[in-house]
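Assemble and predict.
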Amino acid sequence: MSLLQISDPAKSNDDLKKFVVGIDLGTTNSLIASYDSQLIIYDDNDSELIPSVVTIHNNGDLSVGETAVINSDNNKSTCLTSIKRIMGLSYTDIQNLNLKDDLPLIKSDNDLPCININNKKYSAIDISSKILLHLRELAETKENKSLDGAVITVPAYFNDIQRQATKNAAKLAGINVLRLLNEPTAAALAYGLESNETGSFIIYDFGGGTFDVSVLTLEKGIFKVLSTDGNTHLGGDDIDYAIVDWLLDNYAFLKKYKPIEIKKYARLLKESLVDKKSISIDIDGNSISLFDNDFLKIITPILDKTFDIVKNALDASNLSKKDIKNIILVGGSTRIHYIKNILEKKFSCNVLNDIDPDKVVAHGAAIQASVLSGNNKENILLLDVLPLSLGVETYGGLSEKVILRNTPIPIKLRKTFTTFKDGQSKLLINIIQGERELVSDCNSLGEFILKDIPSMVAGGPRIDVDFQIDADGILSVSATETTTGNSSMIEVKPSYGLSESDISRMIEDSNNSAETDMRLRRVNESIVEGKRVIYALEQALDSDGRDLLSPDEYNRISDELGALKLSLNDDDSELIDEKINCVEKVSEFYVERRMNRSIKSLIAGKGIDDIL
Amino acid sequence: MSITITEKAAKHVNDHLVSRGTGIGLRLGVKTTGCSGLAYVIEFADKVESDDKVFEDNGIKLIISPKSYTYLKGTELDFGKEGLNEGFKFNNPNVKDKCGCGESFNV
């Protein structure tokens, strides 16, 4: 009897927890956060908003985030900003956009845009992956754990190519993407779970480079997207450029400055003006001022564009203004207080900005990551754990469980099986659902046959059976014979056709009948063992029984064998075990003789040197 | 039939519980595994489920699910030393045979 130690269920759960994060990969700023009972945002030099900026130095070194911004004034480097705008676009696409960004773009093969710095080419995916890698390192350093996966948010407007480009960038950064999540949906998730609001909502996401609007309905934490609309090239950057134009018109001395520097002043003015009547800054001895009525004039054309898009989205959702319960503000640009005021007036509803509009998307993504990884057990629906154990039928009508009930899904598990008879070429995989020991008391979900198993003795082949359940609850079972790689598989939906009361009845049955099941399991195991002994002995008797045994001995073994066969008809495991013992005892000398003969035939005619 | 724990084992369990800080007792159980069918599970318990069976012996609460109970009826939990190892032992009257490594058993 081996000695056992006490295991700690709380601790082992912690070890099983995966380290997953939500990443808001923004045009201007990015965030990385994890959610485990509370939100943790990983900062870079005490700043939670990490600039989506990569600076490439002339010596080939890279800096990312805050340090990239600090180093960007240097003449010895190139600073790349707002790279998300050209993600997944062709060179021609970008020309048509008429971007004001000063990216040194060149056209490379297949109309792909490339940034050429010191004769080294960087694609938008390369640059994005540097940002993602930086984020990953920040989180990993802080937690001292390696990252298991991430949910990355993208604008609802992103097409398949842009989404794929984002996935590729994550792959380059060594990040396992659990799911790409639409930014407005992430915001709704953050509000839906934390505030338990119900009704119809507009998500107004005005970020650094993109504007998105989505109309959603939220009910008991489950939300449905009714419509989305937006513009991938409308954001805080446009406001900055509008201010730049206004500044150049009004302060001629600024023309001698680099565009990127003027933009910095424009942004400073914008961010400082919040709630103030006017703001003045000093540039090398020259003072410039911006009044709120001028500011409103500058931004009105841009805000009007966003309100037009909101109207389009609302029309597409077949709702009217009065159906909208709340508007959720997302994105740093919604800090401009005019937006909240105008929207409140237009829709006469409550405009929500309780959660920091810069963090709400990362917040929702982190929650989603936590749910997808199975860490966040309290918040997930019943659908996300396996209601009943799943397994396969083994010889003798027994159920061998592979995935136990209440296991969080998605999950993948493997068990290895083998054959029962010599030369067995096929294996029937019957998928069983239920807690009971005997297949006849469980549900069969489906079956398939693995063919072409190479001819081997019983117990020789190794057949790996993989059970995999994805996030949507689809079960796929595959069986692979390891020497040849032959495999076959089946897909089923495990919860199909079972109501909640069915499930609890099946679990109760298994508790009530544990004792009977245990006895039946034992009987079945004895029968399987008995059959194995009979099969092996009969094979042996057929091949050399007459040579090695006297007729008397042969009959004695045959008699015991007959008694064993007879005992298999009774449901008495002890009787069967006893008969197996008798057979083994009476055939002991026969086994010995067979062994001696095999050894003799092995060593016959060989010299002592060959054997020793 | 009840489940019991020896005085020696109880002292060790109590020491473990004190150093862990939380926990109301010990959960005993069986799982299907190994070459002979079943193996013991022994872990700290933080709560009692509604259908659990609870026994108290030598000041220690022993918590067992109804399914595991059918395999563990009359078991005594002991603590012992074997060479350099020390740990818990199940003296289970239901056991019919064990596998060679002692990891799993049959009832």
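Chain B touches chain A at residues 13, 16, 20, 22, 26-27, 32, 37, 40-46, 51, 65-67, 70-71, 80, 82, 85-90, 98, 101-103, 106-107 (CB under 8 Å).
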